Amino acid sequence: MDGKDSSPQTWQVAGVVSFYMSAALVMVFVNKAVLNSSPDLPLFFLLVQLTLAVVLLHGAAFITKKVEIPKLEWRTAKKLAPVTIVNVVGLVFNILCLRGVDASFFQIARGMVLPLTIIVSSINSRSLPSLRVLLAAVIVTAGFFIGVAPNSASADRWHEAPSRLAITYGVLSSLFIAIHAVLIKLSLPHAQNSTIQLAYWQNLGSALLLGPFILLQGELSKLSQLARTPEWNAEVFAWGSLITGVFGFLLCVAGLLSIKVTSPVTHMFSSVTPFLVPPASDITAISQAARSAIQTLLGVWLFKDLFTANRGISILVIAVGTMYYTWVKSVETTPAPTRPAPLAPKDDIEANGDLRLDQIEEEAHDWQDEKRRHPA
């Protein structure tokens, strides 16, 4: 019976994780294509994605009752303000990082997600991680520094190496992802423990917060200038916004599936969650390694990205560290089997003797009480 129950769940987890991996690859490369064609419109591009996700959530709520749009209340908005602010700041750093680095280097620039998540989670829970978790963090950190080392770019293509600013954006994006993971736990109760409602609040709130910064950056005037430029390919921007907006919406909906086949808010903690059941952890680790290899190959093929031995080693080390961390968490979160209390052996003379002596004393007290009540 156990084998039959675990097999479907494993395949369900494999399906959900495979979807996330495919969607993440689509998001990275479509985003990169749009940013290459419109590098001056990163915030406006992000605003279009967020707005489209909100519109599609309303459409899904109209079709099915399983998608419930929350009531917009100021009290709830204030409670969800921290997670919304952290979310939009992380998204901004994320898209600025992607604009400044190769698609194949993007995972290296954001390679500090796991170590920073471990640090933030430990500070929040006021507990120290195990030595094996720390070892996984050290391995991933080493992989990150191998990738960003100056000699990771060849001398003849040094101008194509990522800038320090882009790498800084990647580290800041990783930090806000780690903080966001912790805030999600605290914010879900304010959204009726619904990932869809929380996603709606975050998309809507992030879009509203982006508006003033788009005006300050002058991206609307830049958009009007590009629209009058014959060289600008508006179709890339339009189709890229549509595709990434739809896939962003599908990722929100798939959050429900990940909760059903794993545990609550699993995907909201990104790829470093410790709450996956062991079979899901194995699948997640494998998918991460596969995604790293596919993303690197596609980046080199589609965008002619720079690829060096250091970058290859960096991706490999980060993947190994992440897989090791996933295995450690699956082992540490597995409950230990309970053992029954040991019984005294029949041939234990001392234990049986003490028990027999207690019985004799109890019988003697009963006989004395009976004698007092009925004297001869």
The secondary-structure element order is HHHHHHHHHHHHHH
Tell me the number of strands.
0
**Could you report the average pLDDT, rounded to the nearest whole number?**
77
What radius of gyration results from the CA coordinates?
28 Å
Beta-strand percentage range: under 5%
List keywords for this structure.
74% helix; 376 residues; disordered N terminus; mainly alpha
Describe, in plain words, how this protein is organized in 3D.
The protein is globular, with a radius of gyration of 28 Å. It is built from 14 helices and no strands. Residues 1-8, 259-283 and 344-357 have low confidence and may be disordered. The protein has helices at 2-37, 42-63, 74-79, 81-100, 106-109, 113-125, 131-148, 164-187, 195-217, 219-227, 234-261, 278-303, 309-332, 349-373. With 376 residues, it is an all-alpha fold.
Question: Would you summarize the structure shown here?
Answer:
The chain is an all-alpha fold. It has helices spanning 2-37, 42-63, 74-79, 81-100, 106-109, 113-125, 131-148, 164-187, 195-217, 219-227, 234-261, 278-303, 309-332, 349-373. The radius of gyration is 28 Å and the shape is globular.
Topology record:
Blueprint (H helix, E strand, L loop, with lengths): L1 H36 L4 H22 L10 H6 L1 H20 L5 H4 L3 H13 L5 H18 L15 H24 L7 H23 L1 H9 L6 H28 L16 H26 L5 H24 L16 H25 L3
Helix pairs in contact: 1-11, 1-12, 2-9, 2-11, 4-8, 4-9, 6-8, 7-13, 12-13
